[in-house]
Design brief:
Strand order of the largest sheet: 1-2-3
Number of strands: 3
Structural class: alpha+beta
Largest sheet: 3 strands, mixed
Helix content: 10-25%
Order of helices and strands: EHEEH
Shape: elongated
CATH architecture of one domain: 3-Layer(aba) Sandwich
Length: 76
């Protein structure tokens, strides 16, 4: 569920908005009709697993070669 709140109402309802977010809801904070921020629940952190796709990223032989002047001058 998504709830949108005007920024003027936010400070007085902060505890309620945090409760909504902690229950799994998304809270959009808007200034007038323009959304400016989003409150989301913090999900459970999963450990990162390395080397899941071996060989999917490669480095070219000229990886550390200097870039041409055209690149830096924006003419290419």
């Amino acid at each position: 569920m998504t709830t949108t709140v005007d920024i003027e109402e936010g400070p007085t309802e902060l505890a309620e908005l945090l409760l909504l977010a902690s229950e799994g809801n998304e809270v959009i904070i808007a200034q007038g009709s323009r959304p400016v921020a989003r409150l989301l629940p913090i999900g459970e952190r999963r450990p990162r697993i390395g080397n899941l796709n071996p060989g999917s990223i490669t480095t070219s032989d000229d990886f550390d070669a200097p870039l041409p002047d055209d690149f830096w001058l924006g003419t290419e």
